[in-house]
Amino acid sequence: MGEMASRILVVEDEALIAEMMAEVLMEHGFEVKAVATAKDALQHLTCGAPCDCLFTDINLPGGVDGATLAQLVRELRPDLPVVYASGAVRSIEQLKAVPGATFVAKPYDPTKVCTLLKQFATHH
User: Fold this and answer.
1) Which parts of the chain fold into alpha helices (H)?
2) Could you tell me the CA-to-CA distances from 108 to 1, 59, 71, 84, 116 in Å, in that order?
3) Superfamily of domain 7-121
4) How far is it, in rounded angstroms, from Cα 60 to Cα 65?
5) Angle at 34 between CA 87 and CA 121, to 5 degrees
6) How far is CA 58 from CA 49, 61, 68, 103, in A?
7) Interatomic CA distance for residues 19 and 7, integer angstroms
8) Exposed site from 6, 10, 17, 47, fewest CB < 10 Å?
9) What is the pTM of this model?
């Protein structure tokens, strides 16, 4: 035991999806912080909150999308794994993705995403 729970920052402006995702992640033993905008996500990270992985929707309100958010986050936290999700973008090649990131198309299976995040969040 004594293993720290991986902390996932979920950035998703559709409340129902965010809640569902947070619920499934918590069931799988993750700690979750869910926010709706890139601004809130950056605030969370700049205040020094611990985070092991960023899981972000690409289409976000407020002028900063998930792809831009990931780039900003990488400047703050160069080693933070990033997982993108999108219903509009179909593949990571369509993105200016940060190195070492991964991508899931919406609608996704939250349980599969948990498996993915487990691999990602435990690497460092």
Assistant:
1) 15-27, 38-46, 66-76, 110-121
2) 30, 15, 23, 11, 12
3) Response regulator (3.40.50.2300)
4) 5
5) 85
6) 22, 10, 9, 10
7) 16
8) 47
9) 0.92
Name residue, tokens 């402006």: 13
Report the amino acid identity of residue 3.
E
Evaluate if residue 44 carries a pLDDT over 90. yes
More confident residue, 95 or 26: 26
**Residues 86-99, mean pLDDT to the nearest whole number:** 89
Under a CB-based contact definition with an 8 Å cutoff, are residues 11 and 56 in contact? yes
51 to 9, 23, 83, 107: CA distances (angstroms): 7, 17, 13, 24
CA 26 to CA 119: how far, in whole Å? Answer: 16
